[in-house]
TrEMBL record:
Protein name as it appears in the record: Cytochrome c oxidase subunit 2
UniProt subcellular location: Mitochondrion inner membrane
Record field: transmembrane: 20-43, 63-85
Record gene name: COX2
Biological source species: Neodiprion sertifer (European pine sawfly)
GO terms, molecular function: copper ion binding; cytochrome-c oxidase activity; oxidoreductase activity
Length: 224
């Protein structure tokens, strides 16, 4: 989760988020290269006192400054499109979880296991071990290193189920089922919030996903 004065991304908890961070760094290198080149050319033009009265146009330079940005855009677009398709890919999920957005809480259904259902409200009791506006009374328990499909919808208005450390954001729309796939590499808690302005208490419907080893997940399922 994010902390005060943190200038970087959260630690990636999924392969997709790792690739998104790599793509961000890769794109920033290209942008810095473009910015430095333009600054250098601007300074050169301002400080250069030589002129060429016979140079009116030049086809070569026109081709260069037209083709160079196009090539750079291709270098940015290709990995971007690749990541876009990877994000939407569903890879034979082992578990399906249905998420329903309400004003202002989330409901989860584990239809693969005894039809387990529960609501997840923001935890209003604050103590030194809790995170204000981020803790919930019922965490979403999922096994690590397992392909999971999340089916998202809404019961009233448009919500948006978002966990930044997983690189996942999907809209919850009434009357529509959206799905995403996720794979979490390590155990731990992942925090998120609704990122769609859905009403007066929009900022009070957090998401907490808890990743645990498969053996403990099965014990948790059997406890119902």
């Amino acid at each position: 989760m994010m902390t005060w004065s943190s200038m970087n991304f959260q630690n990636a908890n999924s392969p997709i988020m790792e690739q998104l961070i790599f793509f961000h760094d890769y794109t920033m290198i290209i942008l810095i290269l473009i910015t430095m080149s333009i600054l250098y050319l601007m300074l050169t033009l301002m400080m250069n006192k030589f002129t060429n009265k016979n140079l009116l146009n030049k086809q070569n330079i026109e081709i260069i400054w037209t083709m160079t940005p196009s090539i750079m855009l291709i270098f940015i677009a290709m990995p971007s499109i690749h990541l876009l398709y990877l994000t939407d890919e569903i890879n034979k999920p082992l578990i399906t979880i249905k998420t329903i957005g309400h004003q202002w809480y989330w409901s989860y259904e584990y239809s693969d296991f005894k039809n387990i259902e529960f609501d997840s409200y923001m935890n209003k009791s604050i103590n030194k071990n809790s995170f204000r506006l981020l803790d919930v009374d019922n965490n979403t328990i999922i096994p690590m290193n397992t392909q999971i499909r999340l089916i998202v919808t809404s019961n009233d208005v448009i919500h948006s189920w978002t966990i930044p450390s997983l690189g996942k954001k999907i809209d919850a729309i009434p009357g529509r089922l959206n799905q995403i796939s996720m794979l979490i590499k390590r155990p731990g808690l992942m925090f998120g919030q609704c990122s769609e302005i859905c009403g007066a208490n929009h900022s009070f419907m957090p998401i907490v996903m808890e990743s645990i080893p498969m053996i403990y997940f099965l014990k948790w399922i059997n406890s119902f």
